[in-house]
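Listing S7. Sequence submitted for prediction.
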Amino acid sequence: MSEEIQFRFQLPLGDFDLSAEATIPGTGVTALFGRSGSGKTSLLRCIAGLENTSDGHLEVNGEKWQESTQELFIPPEKRGIGYVFQEGALFPHLQVKANLLYGYKRTNSGERTEEFQRVVDLLGLAGLLERLPAQLSGGEKQRVAIGRALLNNPRLLLMDEPLAALDRDHKKEILPYLESLHRESRIPIIYVTHDLDELVRIADHLVLMERGKIIAQGALDEVLARMDLPIARDADAGAVINTTLISHDEEYHLSRLGFVGGEITVSWIDLPVDSEIRIRIHAKDVSLTLAPPGPTSILNILPGTVEAMEVHGRGRMLLRLDIGGATLLARITRKSQHHLGLEVGTKVYAQVKSVALYT
């Protein structure tokens, strides 16, 4: 069976039309990302079968769910979809355990893709099973909603900005569980968000949307490293690198991360050696020099080559650097670029001031 999801949808949306076509992985987490009103939720609803599209095609891991030319349309309730909304939408009169088991009990044991206890452990729900939804925090409600969707035997899990209604503290509470879901779930997930930090933590593949159209899609690190996209102009633009925890420095309470382009030293990470760590380095946190610097408080200085550069706004430049096969972005002033004589092919040293960790 081919592990990919193919779709094509046309749908009027008012100010603009949804016109989206792509093939995305049938495993892992694919994020639909874009500003509010870009058509992300409408596309998700088309995939769920909740929008009546006159021109549509959908094939999930080798199984056709919709084909306009063949007048094929599998209704939403028969698509095997788990759907998590912005609000948990739990049954208020049922305790957490009964909410979780609602769809699970209606699935034949031989068709179940998840087990009750595994989902409870994965989402940290053991202490909540006897509570009613009214006794839960916002983050707890969303964890239960995700658990209920997983236990409903889905072949595809759709998540529509599940953290949008939560305050900052509750987002911080639930994000580690979403990271666990990303690592351990065997079900493909399509995740809608307009929060860049959120998608970096949990996505493998990125679909970038603008006014109902897909303007780019691909592996997360590749799309975020492109300089021709609006996302590169954001203040928090940066590159994502997948690393492995190499060692700990107990004397100075630091950890060393290895990646294809070298090593990065960060504050102590309380994980065992060989753990996989995703890091993000913002373009604004990278400065450049032509020669190895002298004594400095900056721990991470990486040799590389200028691969591309563009003017971004008045007096600013964005540069893409090749660091031994990995990619960094650096945002500097045009004056600095001129002063250093930087051009494509110039050898530089990237001074990394700060690293964001996603474990």
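Caption to Listing S7: primary sequence and predicted structure tokens for the chain studied. The chain has a mean pLDDT of 91. Residues 15 and 291 are 52 Å apart (CA to CA).
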